[in-house]
Amino acid sequence: MLVNLHVKNLALIEEVDVDFDEGLVVLTGETGAGKSLVIGSVNLALGEKASKDLIRTGTDYSLVELTFKVGESVANTLKDMDIYMENDSEVVVTRKISKDRSVAKINGETVNLKTLKAAMSLLVDIYGQHEHQTLLYKKNHLNFLDDFAKSDIGDLKEKVSDEYKNYKKLLTALEEMQMDNATQSKELEFAKFEINEIESANLTEGEDETLEADFKKMNNSQSTSQSLSEAYECLTAGEVNVSSALSKAIDAVNSISIEDEAIENIKKSLYDVDSLISQTSGDISEYNKTLEYDPARVKEVEDRLDTINTLKLKYGQTTELILDYLKDRQDFVSRIENYEEELEKLNANLQKAKSSLEKLSKDLSSKRKKSAKDFEKKVVKALEDLNFLSVEFKVDFKTKDLSEDGIDDVEFMLSTNPGEPLKPLGDVASGGELSRIMLAIKSVMADADEVDTLIFDEIDAGISGKTATAVGEKLDLLARKNQVICISHLSQIASMADRHYLISKSVRDDKTFSEVELLDRDASVKELARLSGGLEDSDLAIKHAEELKKEAENKKS
Q: Does residue 149 register a pLDDT over 70?
């Protein structure tokens, strides 16, 4: 659950700090007040590309900080990603954007964007203003179904993906084997040339790093030796040196005839320092002996590095990658030179991989179809809750060629009127209907998901009246299991809020500010009056808003 949002120096926002709670949280405000900035700040924390244009004018950086409370299951998953809790349940995500860089941290530890996105996908799910348009494209439908069914098919889907990669690798190897004779001969000759070039270099792993360190050491040996000699002179060998001065100090203290524990401690300390200086002087002397400049050795190392760097340009940026490439070319030559035997073995392995992939894909398809039945029923129920009075929803399956995600070609089919046949969803749904369909699907998926926080940016686009009321009630129902944060411009939805925030814009000293304020009940009613299209201070508008609020409270009780 998202418990706090802190934003600083982001576009119109100078600094806001918002505490969230369970249930339905609704943010409203006039157009241009900065509602989308709030969602945008969360998106930045999710790992969205950061633009320096977002930095507030007159400042050097923007900062977004989100604080979440998480359950044991999510905490354990995060620990598997080496992300540990502050107090076993709190996760603090920060993203700082400056003019030359962007830094993301989780619980104080810097993370890359890949880790940030992976972690945040466990914590929050955002529905953007135009996300419903993804439903128009059939290619996205399989992902929706698989997300719903992931607890049932996740492991099997991963096995299909791994087996498909193995199958494709074998297929590529077979295609290489089946080249025409002229091409095969040319490829074989070139592969042997590459093998000879790499083998003649006699590379060892990590050799380049050792040589570069030696080269740097030898190149700097004269200046290093001079500096160490100066240090040696200061400690031991110079006319005025630490060792001589220390000997005088020891003699002076030894001349003291009184017996005193403090004096004995001083003597011991002086002898310890004398021993340390003697040891350090010896270390300097020994290391200096290794710094003798050998022009022949420098030339030898330089030539060797030139050879390795030439190979890097051709075959890989490290000695490890070059040796991997060598192994690959050796395998290729072995296959070609033992053509018939290798071809037979490769064909056998390919057929075995294909059979395994086909079986796994059929098993995955069977599980998908079983999950699809449950998905259909739940989506229809959710659509009915959203004022689709006579609706049918089906997941249509067709078989496609073997692929990384199996053999299923999936498309959502919809009918919103009695007697009308099912048609592809993208062909029959209007903009407002798409928003509600997406809400229905999201609500169904939330039941199968561990993500606690759902954020909807203007899910109410293109709706009004009874449909808006139905959407508000659906969001409230969803908020009984999940934390739901919603940006809205409709009073029917805002009236259902457990916590209602107003986002406003003001101008002070020729600067524009966006601010977020938690409304009490009276202020919420006043904002509902404005959202309803009336004058927020008029008695009639306030009366209507009060009735709307009471009606919502009765539904929630």
A: yes
The fold for domain 1-123+452-557 equals: Rossmann fold (3.40.50)
Q: Is 162 left (phi over 0), alpha (psi -120 to 50) or beta?
A: alpha
Token reading at 459: 């899910």
Residues 6+ positions from 9 with CB-CB distance below 8 Å: 15, 55, 56, 59, 61, 62, 63
Span 220-269, pLDDT tens digits: 666 676 677 777 778 776 666 788 888 888 888 888 878 888 888 888 88
**CA 472 – CA 484 distance, rounded (Å):** 11
pTM: 0.64
Q: Strand, coil or helix: what is 446?
A: helix
Residue 529's identity, in one-letter code, is: A
CB 492 within 8 A of CB 468: yes
Residue 286 burial (C-beta neighbours within 10 Å; 0-12, 13-18, 19+): exposed
Domain ranges of the chain: 1-123+452-557, 207-312
Q: DSSP of 402-441, one letter per residue?
A: EETTEEEEEEEEEE-STTPPPEEHHHH--HHHHHHHHHHH
Q: Where are the alpha helices (DSSP H) in 34-103?
A: 35-45, 72-80
pLDDT digits (tens, 9 = 90+) for 488-520: 889 999 999 999 999 888 888 777 788 889 999
Q: Is 477:381 a contact under the CB 8 Å cutoff? A: no
- pLDDT tens by residue, 47-92: 888 778 888 888 989 999 999 998 888 888 888 888 887 676 889 9
DSSP helix/strand/coil, 294: coil
